[in-house]
Amino acid sequence: MKCGILFSGGKDSTYAVYLAKKYGNEIPCLISIISENPESYMFHTPSISKVKKQAEIMNIPLITQKTKGQKEEELKDLEKVIQKAKKEYKIEGIVTGSVESAYQASRVQKICDNLELECFNPLWQKDQFELLHDLIEKKFKIIITGVFAYPLDKTWLGREIDEVFIKEVTTLYKKYKINPAGEGGEFETFVLGCPLFSKELEIKNKQIQGKNNSWKMEIELI
After folding, report:
1. What is the pTM of this model?
2. Are 197 and 139 in contact (CB under 8 A)?
């Protein structure tokens, strides 16, 4: 099946591309929403402008759509770009990296129903610790680009998801109920390397901004 991937550049959407290909689907395009609202209910925002680099080294065309990120209104922009992908790339379905967000999954499903497209969520309800271990096992190099919950702070920015990371978030999960894979919005990620990439991306510069327990890191890639 020809599937468009809702792509943010983070671990879940990138893993969704990997799994969609593994299951034998054709991926004619990636679809990214560039939101002006850092508090978007639907869309990943830290380093979203860098998805173009990822698409290039996966050799998959990228369609982008800007949105002001207003709740519910941003869904109209999402439907608009999915409709464009259907017309230009003849996609038959949409793949998402949704794991636990019923808010996101239900709204994407509704759009797919409106456009007569299939909707696949290959990571849906996957155990969060199992997900992190799978990503490490499959050689995904993932860094933290945003943190938004106590007790996470700016020292977590730029950290790679590895076994040490899993050990530390396990402790935070037990003590503070921090979701180990950030599914509660506790943190955001960016993929620098994985089996889909023709090369590993490198960070040239980074800019950190925020306060208290809300920080994000914008990166410049080589």
Report:
1. 0.94
2. no
